[in-house]
Amino acid sequence: MTWRVPRWMLRQISHCHTEEAQDNNRHIVGSDLGPGVTDMSSSDYFEELYGVTEERALNFWSTNLHEAIGSKEWSEIRDSTGVYLASVLGHFCLQSVDRMEILSPDYSPSDQEFRQFADLTQIAELMMRQLTSAKNPLWMESAGAHILLYAGFFQDQNKDRHNIEFYSGLGRECYLMAAVGERARIMKLMAKGFNQYLFHLANLQRHLQESRYLIRSVN
Q: For 124, phi and psi rounded to 5 degrees?
């Protein structure tokens, strides 16, 4: 069993629930976020060991996306794709993953389950199969979200092994295929700005790496 984010980042999340973060994200946390937000069912393990709750995770990612993107652009996406990006990152940081289980031929999630992907190659293989089979919107959203994680947030780790531009186009297609029902609007917005969101998430990861070493004053 492995974790999708480094443990030092989980410790940062556990300490981010400041009054300032609450004020900056009051419009996000504790409100009815509607169909644009990914479900963040968390493991009790994270809450017990690190004090990381769904609320703190969403606060952490919203605050740091704001810092990494800048106030002007964040204000433009905050209440739509900004919330979605924060909830996707929150989902991943609250979920452990068994890579061997996901890569096993016996891994068979239901059509109503948020499918897990071990890496970018597995996403490309699924997309090839989807060309000749019925489309599953939830799996397509999951594939797009995993591309945000692997080709966006972990871009520096993957850019020498994978063609990021190719996966940018693939992620856009994933969200277009996920654009059905009440989530169609947010999925289309994600598709439209997908390449820019990969860029933002790559910058976010660098921002967090740098801020990891900052000594912050306590008010």
A: -60, -40
Q: Taking the mean position of all CA atoms in its chain, how far away is CA 64?
A: 13
Kindly state the tokens that stand for 114. Answer: 């948020």
Tell me the angle at which helices 83-93 and 7-14 cross, rounded to the nearest 10 degrees. 120
Locate 53 and state its tokens: 């709750």
Tokens of 138: 């939830």
137-187 pLDDT per residue, tens: 998 999 999 999 999 999 999 999 999 999 999 999 999 999 999 999 999
Give the per-residue SS3 of the chain.
CEECCCHHHHHHHHCCCCHHHHHHCCCCCCCCCHHHCCCCCCCHHHHHHHCCCHHHHHHHHHHHHHHHHCHHHHHHHHHHHHHHHHHHHHHHHCCEECHHHHHCCCCCCCCCCCCCCCCHHHHHHHHHHHCCCCCCHHHHHHHHHHHHHHHHHCHHHHCCCCCHHHHHHHHHHHHHHCCCHHHHHHHHHHHHCHHHHHHHHHHHHHHHHHHCCCCCCCC
pLDDT confidence bin for 25, thresholds 50/70/90? very low
Q: Is 26 exposed, middle or buried (0-12, 13-18, 19+ CB in 10 A)?
A: exposed
- Give the position of tokens 């979605």: 84
pTM (2 d.p.): 0.77
